């Protein structure tokens, strides 16, 4: 059962611990745009992500509905571990790619049916991801009912598929694929294993990620309004940017303090 995320804009300090960072992209690191291809992560935020990846010894991943190749372009020059298409494809820290595919005949039938149907609704947009399809209606909300009926009809026809609703979008994807499972897979591998997970997201697609992080005693952060299982909340992307900068400064300070402490211990042992 969903609860209202804590109305707490003072998030916990990330000092004195080892953390694994997981970030949704659209609505979290990149402001929502009317078209998915217009989204971008500001340069200073990309710099901060690179710093956080370095300070966490590579325990930072992007977890998104977008394909991994789009995540790489948005975050460049950072090429982090990533879960794309809600985890249907996942690149681990070693660079190995894990991918779930649809049967070719099913993918072709879905593509043909969706293209033909959505061509009748001006302003809607079909995003083809290989193993999943996103049906966008942000610029044509008057067709929401038609888009949802089409998506439900196709999932009924192909029981191995599932729906993933989002903000003015519904996705058709393989069953058993979600951001929570992706985060759990990362947390079982180096360099994420043994760390405290931190996940920031903004949408319905992120709720299973929040649930997974909560079960691991981590820090779950909802961006924006609405009920959520996240334990903390930030108002918008600018608040995310400010918090990430605080985290970077805190981790940098912790690392500097640790290096100095090790230096003192080494000097003491020599004396």
Largest sheet strand order? 5-4-3-2-1-10-11-12
- Give, in order, the helices and strands: EHEHEEEHEEHEEHEHEEH
Structural class: alpha/beta
Shape verdict:
globular
Radius of gyration: 20 Å
* Uncertain stretches of 5 or more adjacent residues: 1-6
Largest pleated sheet: 8 strands, mixed
Helix content bin: 25-40%
The fraction of residues in strands falls at 15-25%
Count of DSSP E strands? 12
Q: Supply the number of helical segments.
A: 7
- Spatial gap, N to C terminus: 60 Å
Summarize the structure.
The protein is of the alpha/beta class and 271 residues long. It has helices at 43-55, 68-75, 104-118, 144-157, 179-187, 207-215, 237-270, and strands at 19-23, 60-63, 82-84, 89-91, 97-99, 125-128, 133-136, 161-166, 169-174, 196-201, 219-223, 232-234. An eight-stranded mixed β-sheet has the order 5-4-3-2-1-10-11-12, with helices on both faces. It has a four-stranded antiparallel β-sheet with strand order 6-7-9-8, with helices on one face.
